[in-house]
Design brief:
This protein is mainly alpha-helical. It contains seven helices and no strands. About 75% of the residues lie in helices and about 0% in strands.
Length: about 140
């Protein structure tokens, strides 16, 4: 017999799966170059690291792309995706964005933070600059 508490936990897991699948699809549609590099078939939603680690991988990928060609098409598509996520009012999506992407980019050593901030929406610039309280 499944307890009520267990049922609620299963519902939460379904929400996590939905968020992962949705953000995964949005990311791979917006930045297909990352999908190619990541070598993950978009039908496979069982990445063991979860959505935060997937977004960490994306942030690292973006940092490398910024170093190679800061004004390139891949960088432009990536920031369009990031700003699209930033329009969300879903607290989990915003947290994934902040912790999974923006914080990773902020801490990259060879990245011009002003250039990054200039590619972010006003809302996301505030989140991005909040990391200055924690990092040099």
């Amino acid at each position: 017999m499944v307890t009520k508490s267990r049922q609620k936990m299963e519902e939460l897991n379904k929400i996590d799966d939905f968020i992962y699948k949705t953000l995964n699809d949005l990311l791979f549609d917006a930045v297909p170059e990352f999908k190619t590099v990541f070598e993950l078939d978009s039908s496979n939603y069982n990445f063991s690291g979860g959505i935060y680690l997937l977004m960490n991988e994306f942030a690292s990928f973006l940092a490398k792309e910024i170093e190679i060609e800061p004004a390139g098409a891949v960088v432009s598509k990536a920031f369009a995706f990031i700003n699209q996520l930033g329009e969300s009012n879903n607290l989990e999506v915003l947290n994934i964005l902040k912790v999974g992407i923006l914080e990773i980019i902020y801490t990259e050593k060879n990245i011009d933070r002003e250039m990054v901030a200039g590619c972010l929406s006003e809302k996301l610039q505030k989140y991005f600059y909040e990391f200055s309280h924690y990092y040099n």
